[in-house]
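Technical note accompanying the year-one report. For the benefit of new consortium partners, we illustrate the data format agreed upon in the data management plan: each record pairs a sequence with a structure-token string. No post-processing was applied to the example shown here.
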Amino acid sequence: MTRTLSPVAGTNRALIVDDDDDMRYLLRAVIERANEGLQVAAEAADAAEALDRWRATQPDVIVLDHRMPGTTGLEVAAQILAESPEQSIILFSAYLDDDLVSKAAEIGIRTCISKDRYDDIPEALWRYGPAA
């Protein structure tokens, strides 16, 4: 299930993109628990849905899974950054290696976070959100 919320002034709004329902639920819970101005603007389960939700909600930060069926997170990020070079994107993956991190930096992804460090997501949202 995906969700879309209305923007609220003074918040840092995130789009969560992950093909795993449980991971989206976990990220939403971590973000909502952190509160402090963080909000989940929308969720998406695949690349096409991610692009639709991104265009519809214009989030401050995108938390983007790399390994999804079909289109990878790097490919989605490249499409988004081609349209909006200032969009803040956090690549979120269980399979980070130096090559992936390097490619992510080359296309303009702000940072990469391993899925086993999901508790770092709120800090990254604050760091790479609109005030950054």
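Partners are asked to follow this layout when depositing records. The two ends are 31 Å apart (CA to CA).
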